[in-house]
């Protein structure tokens, strides 16, 4: 069955309620298409609603399959045609553009991170609640997590066989279980595909980088009189990424928009002068280090070093003059404006990772008889990423150089003597390093499912069932190259003239263990021997094995007929076991019973062999954990009204009981109603639900993850070890979802028009979250003694400074807003033109996104409209599409409203109130939005072959500057397009 609207705009997304009604009116729509009559009144994605001959349809917002059932939970649907028109190398990118999806992670996010574990992970997030609160399914089944948080990687899915994606924009825990607080995204494959098809496409940016190519093929054939059906697909995709330009204020490959944005932050105690504490600046210059080294304290402060170690007077910018105490007049720690920007590292982070996808999938189904099928599926996916989080390994004025260091120029040694000093503080970006840090995450999934489905008679009715058992295993290997060891670096830079006249390391123990001296005074090449000593070939490594075992059984049908229609139910039970084991290298983890030392990581007296944490970044630690889940659910649909005057209404309710081995029993439920009123085309829907998210394996069992970070403490930038640890006492998060919607669906006075508005209100209590290291420091300074116990600061040895970060159940989230959706479709025959014209738009308005840390001394913070985060006030998607039998053109627009850097800032220029930790003052609190225009087209030059093209971000709109406290990145790729204009073209062939 083909509806007239099968060729819709590039991203078409319409509510599943529309899709359900499409199934009920399938014959009418088919006739309208055949006659090329008035515009079909059915929105586009309805063709994929799996309408059956008896008009029974299943959508992902409910487990119920019943005639005439209109579910109350809003569900957005994207068909295979919609996804194909978007022409993305990865379906993830097309889906993430939907306004309700906010905070998704992809290959442009976390590129400045070595240890987060989510690098290169394509995971979807609804409502800005994070991927861990969005349940991603494949054919209604769970998929093994691709990292220790349990989040799946969409890149590992068989994308060419996907015939529809359902995005449930409401709580779905009662139907599907844990993690569906924000909703669920269900990828539905074509299980009965017949024939052979392939897709080939390629593209690049207007800067001639991020070159990409995709090859996909799928096949399907029936055997044994259509009883045995085999489908399969193979896919290969490569997106080569955008490499870092290195040091300085230079964007990659001609991108001129990067200008070192940063916060200039005055000490809190100085804000009683009526001036703001925060100022957003461009061309920020760190004054605690330079590209090849800078003396940062004492009488020689301001002396920098260049080619061959030659000293020169450093240009601070801001007309800054060093005071000899570590401060610089005219500047605010740690930034000046302008000056020598050659050492800045913010632009050195890759804009996009080099990502390679390899996926293979097969499904074999056998009909035992017309009513029962058994099937087997196998899914293998490998996703590999490569990126550089930053160049060098910046040292923020935390090095001590002895005046006796033989690498110092004679003039500096003489100046030391003249000023009666024996050492000085020093900072460097280490730009002389021969290689940038580069990270290589690789994820390999092996997923096998065996199942059965069918139907059977009982109690005078026909019932359907499905049952399956799944084992999924995901191996994640993170290999880091060109990473330095802190202790070896410190020993190597402490050089002395030895008795034989050669230069060596001062420490006898270091020399005995192979120390090779390092010259960090100026731009002097690093020898291979030195580099191999401080950055050994076997860098940080993390190896993770995630395993998921599932057994599930579900039954649904119509129990009996009432005066208003059939009363339907769905019920089922599920058992699930989640486990993981992660191991790190011995330099990061330390030598333990389960990770003995090896030849690859030889013992070294300079390194901490017990605790580990020896790397500059990437200190991975061993951990393991397991939990299991038992649950059962019941869902009912009860028609309560059927009247020619008042219309039709039904009540939908569900209840699920879950037993976690770690945290005990928890209940989730749903109560909703849908009323097709007696007013032409008008329908009302409402649903309230209790939803849950159980703590994941990482939150429960994670060993300490140690990364280098910096915090502002007592007016200084302090380098710290940020130690993140798990908490086995965590409990499930509990959410209340409330949705109320109004739908106008194809009224007789506008048969091509559909629109809806849905208000949502989500409150999550017991949120598992943690404070940032800077927040903990600020609370400690403000007098929170309990928080002070989690840190040690102000130590003379930088590696002794640390802040411990741990998750807890005290926080809460409260998100509310509304979704708007509208579409209009017309047949152009009335204007003597060929084809059909479709206009469609989706918009999400975030009224509030309130986060309450639940800690004494903190207040709730408002995230809606905070454009440094994930939840802008408005996010929209619109398109206009002209489709004929031969060709199509689609113009689409993506929109993000302007916002603020933080809603907690108080904007003022003069007469400012005294700043507080909770409400700092800022000179300008405006962050611009973005408006992107895309253009795509197709040309069907034969019955089987279609050529296509796509241009994204035609205007080549630059991302808004995103100031940071430490100048680590300077953009927000979670919200803005950071790649620029992209061209793609390809060919699809369907035999």
From TrEMBL:
Q: Which cell locations does it reside in?
A: Cell outer membrane
Which Pfam families does this chain map to?
Plug
Q: Does the keyword Transmembrane apply?
A: yes
| Database matches in InterPro entries | Beta-barrel_TonB_sf, Plug_dom, Plug_dom_sf, TonB-dep_rcpt-like
What keywords is this UniProt entry annotated with? Cell outer membrane, Membrane, Receptor, Signal, Transmembrane, Transmembrane beta strand, Transport
| SUPFAM superfamilies tied to this protein | Porins
Q: Where is the signal peptide?
A: 1-19
Membrane-spanning segments: none
What's in the GO CC field? cell outer membrane
**Residue ranges of domain TonB-dependent receptor plug in the record:** 71-184
Its topology with respect to the membrane?
Multi-pass membrane protein
User: In terms of one coarse class, where is the protein primarily found?
Assistant: membrane
Q: Which PROSITE patterns match?
A: TONB_DEPENDENT_REC_3
> PANTHER family from the entry?
PTHR47234, SECRETIN_TONB SHORT N-TERMINAL DOMAIN-CONTAINING PROTEIN
Family, per entry: Belongs to the TonB-dependent receptor family.
Name of the protein this chain belongs to: TonB-dependent receptor plug domain-containing protein
Species of origin: Duganella flavida
Organism lineage string: Bacteria, Pseudomonadati, Pseudomonadota, Betaproteobacteria, Burkholderiales
């Amino acid at each position: 069955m083909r509806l007239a609207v099968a060729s819709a705009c590039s991203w078409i997304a319409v509510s599943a309620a529309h899709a359900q009604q499409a199934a009920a009116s399938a014959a009418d729509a088919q006739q309208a298409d055949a006659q090329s009559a008035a515009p079909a009144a059915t929105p586009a994605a309805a063709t994929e609603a799996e309408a059956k001959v008896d008009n029974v349809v299943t959508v992902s917002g409910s487990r119920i399959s019943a005639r005439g059932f209109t579910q109350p939970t809003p569900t957005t649907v994207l068909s295979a045609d919609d996804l194909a028109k978007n022409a993305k190398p990865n379906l993830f990118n097309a889906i993430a553009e939907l306004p309700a999806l906010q905070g998704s992670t992809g290959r442009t996010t976390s590129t400045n991170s070595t240890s987060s574990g989510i690098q290169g992970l394509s995971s979807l997030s609804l409502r800005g609640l994070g991927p861990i609160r969005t349940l991603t399914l494949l054919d209604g089944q769970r998929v093994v997590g691709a990292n220790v948080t349990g989040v799946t990687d969409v890149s590992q899915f068989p994308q060419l066989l996907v015939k529809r994606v359902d995005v449930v924009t409401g709580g779905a825990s009662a139907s599907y279980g844990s993690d569906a607080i924000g909703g669920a995204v269900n990828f539905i494959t074509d299980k009965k595909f017949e024939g052979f098809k392939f897709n080939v496409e390629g593209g690049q940016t207007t800067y001639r980088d991020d070159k990409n190519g995709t090859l996909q093929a799928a096949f399907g054939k029936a055997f044994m009189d259509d009883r045995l059906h085999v489908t399969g697909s193979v896919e290969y995709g490569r997106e080569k990424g955008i490499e870092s330009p290195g040091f300085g204020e230079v964007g990659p490959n001609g991108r001129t928009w990067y200008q070192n944005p940063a916060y200039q932050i005055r000490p809190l105690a100085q804000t009683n002068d009526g001036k703001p504490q925060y100022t957003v600046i461009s061309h920020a210059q760190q004054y605690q280090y330079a590209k090849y080294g800078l003396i940062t304290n004492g009488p020689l402060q301001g002396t920098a070093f260049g080619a061959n170690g030659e000293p020169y007077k450093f240009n601070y910018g801001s007309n800054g003059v060093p005071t000899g105490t570590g401060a610089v007049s005219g500047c605010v720690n740690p930034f000046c404006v302008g000056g020598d920007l050659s050492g800045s590292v913010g632009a050195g982070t890759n804009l996009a990772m080099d990502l390679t996808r390899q996926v293979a999938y097969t499904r074999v189904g056998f009909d035992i008889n017309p009513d029962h099928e058994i099937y087997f599926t196998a899914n293998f996916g490998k996703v590999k990423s490569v990126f550089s989080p930053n160049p060098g390994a910046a040292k923020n004025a935390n090095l001590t150089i002895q005046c006796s260091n033989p690498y110092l120029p004679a003039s500096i040694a003489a100046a030391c003597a003249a000023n009666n000093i024996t050492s000085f503080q020093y900072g460097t970006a280490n730009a002389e390093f021969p290689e940038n840090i580069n990270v290589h995450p690789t994820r390999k999934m092996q997923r096998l499912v065996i199942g059965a489905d069918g139907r059977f008679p009982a109690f005078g009715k026909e019932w359907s069932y499905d049952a399956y058992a799944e084992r999924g295993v995901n191996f994640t290997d993170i290999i880091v190259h060109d990473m330095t060891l802190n202790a070896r670096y410190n020993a190597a830079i402490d050089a002395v003239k030895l008795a034989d006249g050669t230069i060596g390391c001062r420490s006898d123990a270091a020399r005995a263990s192979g120390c090779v001296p390092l010259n960090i005074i100026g731009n002097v090449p690093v020898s291979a021997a030195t580099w191999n000593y401080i950055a050994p070939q076997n860098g940080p490594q993390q190896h993770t094995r995630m395993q998921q075992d599932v057994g599930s059984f579900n039954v649904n049908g119509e129990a009996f007929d009432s005066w208003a229609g059939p009363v339907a139910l769905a019920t089922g039970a599920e058992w699930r076991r989640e486990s993981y084991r992660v191991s790190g290298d011995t330099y990061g983890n330390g030598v333990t019973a389960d990770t003995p030392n090896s030849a690859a990581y030889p013992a070294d007296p300079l390194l901490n062999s017990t605790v580990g944490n020896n790397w500059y970044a990437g200190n991975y630690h061993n951990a393991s954990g397991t939990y299991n889940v038992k649950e059962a659910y019941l869902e009912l649909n009860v028609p309560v009204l059927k009247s020619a005057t008042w219309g039709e209404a039904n009540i939908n309710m569900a209840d699920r009981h879950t037993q976690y081995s770690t945290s005990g029993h928890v209940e989730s439920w749903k109560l909703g109603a849908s009323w097709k009123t007696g007013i032409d085309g008008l329908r009302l829907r409402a649903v309230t639900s209790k939803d849950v998210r159980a703590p994941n394996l990482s939150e429960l069992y994670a060993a300490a993850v140690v990364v280098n970070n910096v915090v502002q403490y007592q007016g200084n930038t302090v380098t710290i070890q940020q130690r993140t640890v798990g908490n086995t006492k965590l409990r499930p998060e509990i959410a209340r979802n409330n949705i109320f919607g109004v739908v106008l669906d194809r009224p007789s006075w506008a048969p091509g028009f559909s629109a809806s508005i849905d208000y949502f209100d989500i409150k999550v209590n017991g949120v598992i979250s943690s404070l940032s290291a800077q927040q903990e420091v600020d609370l400690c300074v403000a007098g929170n003694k309990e928080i002070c116990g989690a840190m040690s600061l102000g130590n003379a040895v930088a590696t002794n400074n640390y802040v411990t970060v741990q998750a807890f159940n005290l926080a809460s989230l409260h998100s509310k807003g509304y979704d708007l959706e509208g579409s209009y479709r017309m047949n152009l025959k009335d204007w003597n033109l060929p084809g059909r014209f479709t206009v469609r738009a989706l918009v999400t308005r975030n009224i509030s996104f309130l986060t309450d840390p639940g800690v004494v001394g903190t207040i709730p913070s408002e995230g809606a409209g905070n454009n440094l985060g994930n939840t802008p006030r408005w996010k929209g998607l619109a398109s206009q599409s002209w489709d004929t039998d031969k060709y199509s053109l689609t113009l689409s627009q993506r929109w993000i409203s302007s916002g603020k850097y933080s809603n907690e800032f108080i904007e003022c220029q003069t007469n400012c109130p005294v700043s507080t930790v909770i409400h700092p003052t800022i000179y300008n609190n405006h962050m611009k939005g973005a408006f992107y225009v895309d253009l795509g087209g197709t040309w069907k030059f034969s019955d089987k072959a279609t050529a296509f093209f796509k241009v994204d971000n035609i205007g080549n709109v630059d991302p808004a500057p995103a100031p940071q406290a430490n100048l680590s990145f300077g953009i927000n790729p979670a919200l803005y397009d950071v790649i620029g204009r992209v061209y793609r073209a390809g060919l699809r062939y369907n035999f």
